[in-house]
Amino acid sequence: MKKKNILSLLALLIPVVTGCSSGTGDHYPDPKGVATQDLEAHHIEGTLHDVNVSESSIKFIENGETDYTLIYPKNNGKAQKTALFIADHIQRATKAYLQIKEYDEGTYDSSMKIICLDVEEILDSENISFPDRELGESAYQIETKGNAVFINCKSNYGFIYAAQSFLKHTIGYQRYSKDIVVYEKDGATLPNMHILEESDFTYRIASNFMDIDTTFEMGFLIPSEAIYMKGFVNNYHSSCLYLPADVYYESHPLWYMSPVNTSPYQQNANQICYTAHGDEEEYQALVNELFERIKICLDTDKEVSTFSFTIMDNNNMCMCPSCVEASAKYGAESGSIVVFMNKVDDLVQNYLQEIADATNTPKRVVNLSFFAYNRAEAPCAHKDSTGKFVPNSEDVVCHPNVIPFLAPINADYVDSFYHEENRTLQETFEGWQALSKNMHLWIYETNFTAYMYPFNSYSTVIETYRYCVDKGVDLIYNEGQHNQPAITAFGRFKDYLDSVSQFNVNLDYMTIVDDFFKNYFREADEPMRKMIFEIQEHMAYLRQKYPSDVGGGIYQIIAQSRFWPKKILDDWVELCNEALTRIDVYKNSDSALYNILRKNIILESLFPRYALCEFHSGKMTTDEFKSTLDALEADCRTLNVKNYNEGNSIYDRFAGWR
Ligand SMILES: [Zn+2]
């Protein structure tokens, strides 16, 4: 099919276009409204971002060449990947070829012009070490000394942040998306860098679908880097993958929930019975067998620090007399899970201690996490007379290495977690805090029934991140359109926002907006910024007018014609048209950039064009509708949009409309 130019398509679609400033009624957005209002700014104290950088006269790149070599430790794949990442961007920004090299013991002398990436022997000889304070796994340090730069990382999790920081200060590097990278400096000199930082969330899993390289460069982890998820444990919902019913049910029926309301072999329809129906021997066998299964993973993967044993994705929990009794005793269904996880943790920690003793090495840090989700979301804690949450029993206090993975699926995600709409959630958080020092968190940032429509959490999510850091969350997954290769409705802005604000939750929201729109849309900044502000205003208005239909939930039916009048959608399409006109300056001077910017803008036009086809086809002639839909479908295919909601193909939807 011949792909139509969006401009000609829109000329067909909107024969008479009026200016964007005219209103559609009393609610028509004022761009200065909700999107830009001062947020409550619950800034968090105690985060670590000490960045002291000043210019120096030390030469780094001259005439596209450099004398420097980057040296990284032997047999460390993550370090090599990070070294390649640094060298690649130095070359792209300055054309200089930065040599990278594995370190050979005993070959360092202090006159060398090197960038040392976490080579212990070199750091020791230069007395580079972390200050004496508690640091997370993502901590890194950069020190300029003499002619060299020394990078020290607490663990492999710190490499990416150190590398981003090094590149930012030497060549002005910043990545905004898969296609947009900016270099603002020429790298002529190496600045004096004295930096000590760590990510406010140690472990961050990308929200929306993202290729592996972009995931890494934007500071996210793929799920299996944050939580063990390999081999037979290849899902977030892992309990019945560690202990599959088709292997164990016949010999150990008491390990599984009752009543079993579907075939016990359908793993997803079932849960583990965390009390083994009160049978002590079977309970011990269950604990032992899970430990054996975890041990296989521990022994084959020496890097991973978090194993999860999580309930399956359904609303079942065992209702055997023993589980009902435990639930009554502890005050919530999560109680028997915590008790069980603590038992397994005893075996895991003993095993790790034995290895440490036998090999005379430090004990490996391994955490076990479990879902506080669905029926297991509520903690076994209550408020005491002073209003402070306290454990219902000592049995349900998590061991130091046992961590609740809270997934509050019913929270209000349009408001921040500080908002009174989230009072119940705040109590859940405080309850779990009484049971565990650390927390993992799974939250949401899209409407799973309507992928093509906006979800108005843009300006509030940064507040939510502040709340979570304050509550001791160290692993975060803000689930978005995980199976959608191209996201409309400013999903790419959310990716960037997550990339920078999960690292430093105290950043200013409007500064991030300015930075992103200026770089991701260039000359089209103004109309695109107007569009997102208007979307935010419109959604805030909808929420006010239709509170039961447009709340902060992730399954609300927002794809309804009454919410999306034709005029407002036409105006948004027109803003995209104007944006396309503004980037014309690059058409001849930089066609590669032009095509990237054009793609970025067309991606945002998909939402209003989709909504026009969904709700306003009656106002088009048959031919107009056909050509409009043809062009929309062609753009969706070109950009690789796959779904219109979490589980259904957008192309089946288009076929239905035809
Ligand atoms: Zn049970």
Report what the structure shows:
The chain is built from 21 helices and 17 strands. By secondary structure, it is of the alpha/beta class. Among the domains are: 6-44 and 519-657, no CATH class; 49-199, 2-Layer Sandwich (Chitobiase, domain 2), CATH 3.30.379.10. Helix 9 (280-300) crosses helix 11 (335-359) and helix 15 crosses helix 16. Residues 1-38 have low confidence and may be disordered. The structure holds zinc ion.
- In the predicted model, the low-confidence regions spanning at least 5 consecutive residues are 1-38
Q: If helices are DSSP runs of H or I spanning 4 or more residues, what is the number of helices?
A: 21
End-to-end separation in angstroms reads 16 Å
Q: What is the mean predicted local confidence, pLDDT?
A: 92
- Shape type: globular
Residue fraction in strands = 5-15%
Helix content: 25-40%
Computed Rg: 27 Å
What does the main sheet amount to? 7 strands, mixed
Instruction: Describe the strand arrangement of the main beta sheet, using strand numbers.
Output: 1-9-5-6-4-2-3
Bound molecules: zinc ion
User: How many individual β-strands?
Assistant: 17
- The structure class reads alpha/beta
